[in-house]
Amino acid sequence: MNSLLHGGLKPLREASGLPRVLLLVGGSIVLCFVIMAVFAPLIAPYHFTQYEADGVRFAKQAAPTIEHVFGTTARQTDVLSLTIYGSQTALKVVVVAVFLSALIGVPLGLVAGYAGGWFDRLAVLFTDALFAFPSMLLAIVMAFLLAGPLGGGIATAALSMTVVYVPQYFRVVRNSVLSVREEPFVEAAVVMGAPTHSIIVKYIFPNVIQSVPIIATLNAADAILTLAGLGFLGYGVQPTVAAEWGFELQRAIPDIAAGIWWTGLFPGLAIVILVIGLTLFGEGLNDVFNPIFRRKAVKAPNISAAKLEDTASA
Q1: Distances (CA, A) of 227 to 37, 113, 216
Q2: CATH class of domain segment(s) 2-313
Q3: Whole-model pTM?
Q4: What is the pLDDT of residue 55?
Q5: Is the dihedral of CA 165, 167, 168, 169 positive or negative?
């Protein structure tokens, strides 16, 4: 395991040029949002449902001031606090959705790609049927179906997006397995009588896992937009459960006509900046781990003038 981890991190240490810049910039943006989400109760000046302090109600739709840096909403809540707590909601939903998608899609792709037969055909048929639906439409349908038994909480939003991303992990892993299983080292393990689960875990899995972190990062960026879309349409996390950027954008639509720009600007900026950060980080990972785009720094040879003269004279 340590050797696998060391080998997997080697391309990151050797990254240079534009991929390194993408990783640093994207990773810094994502890290800032992670810190903001984890320490939201300490960073936010108020709770996301708080509308008064010291017995005094906040002003309704007040412009940004020292007391309320991002202003207040029509519900008399602090926009800065809503934006900070919104990062916490986004982190919870995205982490759960991406983790569950990989947890289901990766093993399913490993088994289907290696075993083949009727199981592979059935799995491909099912995942292709899911993949044929537009991601937002599928997420809305799943959120509508899960809202009854689970309510409009974080679990509903996360599970509705899990169904969307499972086919992506399945297709990428399965296609990689179809290539790896024909390699000589896999055939040698089969001839030596190694158990099927041992071949999958020891020989195939380490050779197909490199693409999973890249997919997970790009899926996280897409999940932020999907979560915001669900909240905007009213199928996401309910405002009584947690703060959510998409819902705040939906509530800010009437404010724009009245010239109240701050209620929608800052949640919208949070969505855009986090998506950009995740996308840059994912593109950096792709450039680093993809052998087609990978570039190693090449040092110029140090050839002295004396050696050049000796070569010329010879």
Answers
A1: 16, 31, 16
A2: mainly alpha
A3: 0.83
A4: 83
A5: positive
